[in-house]
Amino acid sequence: MVVCVCNAIREQEVREAARSGARSACQAYRTLGRQAKCGQCVPFAREIIAQESAAA
């Protein structure tokens, strides 16, 4: 599933960034070499990161 249309970031990429230590959407995007643009994706990215943190 696509999380960020502006940057073409997929859910799996956000999950991998979270597993690598990203604790916020901004950190995850930086890990991927991108930054949020319009911001509509940030709540969904936060949710994914929270799921990964809870599973760890």
From TrEMBL:
Domain BFD-like [2Fe-2S]-binding: residue ranges: 2-51
InterPro entries: BFD-associated_ferredoxin, BFD-like_2Fe2S-bd_dom, BFD-like_2Fe2S-bd_dom_sf
GO MF terms, alphabetically ordered: 2 iron, 2 sulfur cluster binding; metal ion binding
Name of the molecule in the record: Bacterioferritin-associated ferredoxin
Keyword Iron: yes
Source organism: Stakelama tenebrarum
Stored Gene3D superfamilies: BFD-like [2Fe-2S]-binding domain
Family: Belongs to the Bfd family.
Pfam families: Fer2_BFD (PF04324)
Keywords, sorted A to Z: 2Fe-2S, Electron transport, Iron, Iron-sulfur, Metal-binding, Transport
Domain of life according to the entry: Bacteria
